[in-house]
Write a structure and sequence with these properties.
Two copies of one chain form a homodimer.
Chain A: E1 4-9, H1 13-25, E2 29-35, H2 38-44, E3 53-57, H3 65-75, E4 81-85, H4 90-98, E5 103-106, H5 111-123, H6 130-142, H7 154-163, H8 169-175, H9 180-194, H10 199-208
Parallel strand pairs in A: 1-2, 1-3, 3-4, 4-5
Helix pairs in contact in A: 8-9, 9-10
The structure holds a DNA duplex (30 and 30 nucleotides).
Chain lengths: 214, 214
DNA sequence: TTAAAAAAGGGGAAAATAGCCCTTTTAATA
DNA sequence: TATTAAAAGGGCTATTTTCCCCTTTTTTAA
């Protein structure tokens, strides 16, 4: 019986190695490739012998899971990949699924369910857990209007960055060569767009989404 | 040859199971006990047959690694335990080592080094990695700077955390069962202490100094 | 035990922030 | 070119934040 081949792309060596042991203990699977980031994964790929499933961690140095998924979509659109992450933020999940991930597993999943997930992806082409589905439903409720993700314009981003400092809006207006009233417009429109109710909310959003470095 | 026994205490089932596979593949070690939190670990312990090493995750529901370590120190002071965590915050490391952990491993450690660490703990009684040592040195530097200034009291920290949300001060006062005027006192005193001029400054300070997780 | 300090609370006012509805200017494109 | 959408700006008001100076209560330490 031919075993299905799995590639493990994860920078947490201990986890990756351990996961490999586990997968190799399954009857129908074995790990044929291991890389610590997307870049190394791509370099190690043999175009003529692609793995049946790629297990892709999201947070990795150099080339992360999202970038790797983008590359896969571009270069090997038929490649099956499952995102495997600690990160259950809606935004990340959506990004990965949009890019064609066949499933999104949280790292605290039970080993038996993990094996089921592999089976499902091989047999049915996808695996979506309850938890991920619920996360998505939450997201739909929260922001059904911006279904292509929140795109901030350059000028808005500039304002957001300044709003994340101790400057008053008046000072920000001077800095941006705009009237305080215009700044007030940016503020209102961002409050609406980002679903926050105070400047603190802007700051938290800015930091969470890496518009400002700490 | 007798194998050394290892207990794995970790709520991330997939990781725990995988790690078990890995350890069982080592010549000198095998996993004899697995629990998903400290409570279950303690219940499962056989007083007459303690494991040679306990691998203890920090972040777990119900009873976390620190609490479990406290219990071990109290009840089995000779028990060897290694903290195993994603969390490389100085505070946590220090807490665990003070409680008698024989080592502190980050989950992205290399499998070979992991085996070495187990060997060291068995043979020498401890294992400290470069990275952890450096973290501790960093902390010593920081503490020295803090000495003539910034150490926040519990109640101040509680306030700071709430100030880093979209709550108004009035709402924070209600949350902390204090008068808004008292909250105003905390605010003024923190502004002074942290050298900031607006609530935004508090938020930035709180995030920079990891009083709140993002 | 008593003095000092820290924590809790208050009055009042100026500045900043937030919410709503509106007009003018500029840019985009059909 | 005419139409439209977006960007910039204004007026007004309510709430929140910030600041300064003050009293009472509780803890801490000499």
């Amino acid at each position: 019986m031919k075993k299905y081949s799995i590639a493990v792309v994860d920078d947490h060596s201990l986890f990756a190695k351990s996961l490999t042991s586990l997968i190799d203990s399954f009857n129908e699977y074995h790990v044929t490739l291991h890389a610590t980031n997307g870049q190394k994964f791509i370099e190690a790929l043999n175009e003529n012998d692609m793995p049946d499933i790629v297990l892709l961690d999201i947070n990795m140095p150099i080339m992360n899971g999202i970038e790797t998924m983008e590359w896969l979509k571009e270069n090997h659109p038929a490649q099956k990949a499952i995102a495997l992450s600690m990160d259950d933020s809606e935004e990340t999940i959506i990004k990965m699924l949009r890019l064609g991930a066949k499933g999104y597993l949280l790292k605290d999943i039970h080993p038996e369910i993990f094996e089921n997930a592999l089976n499902d992806v091989i047999e049915k082409g996808f695996y979506y857990s309850d938890r991920i589905t619920n996360k998505l439903l939450d997201t739909i409720d929260k922001k059904q209007n911006d279904d292509h993700g929140i795109q901030l314009k350059d000028r808005e981003i500039e304002f957001l960055k300044l709003a994340c400092t101790e400057m008053t809006y008046k000072e920000i207006a001077a800095e941006m060569f705009l009237s305080p009233k215009t700044i007030d417009g940016y503020r209102e429109s961002l409050f609406e767009k980002l679903d926050v109710r105070s400047r603190i909310g802007l700051v938290l959003y800015g930091i969470k989404n890496k518009y400002i470095e700490m």
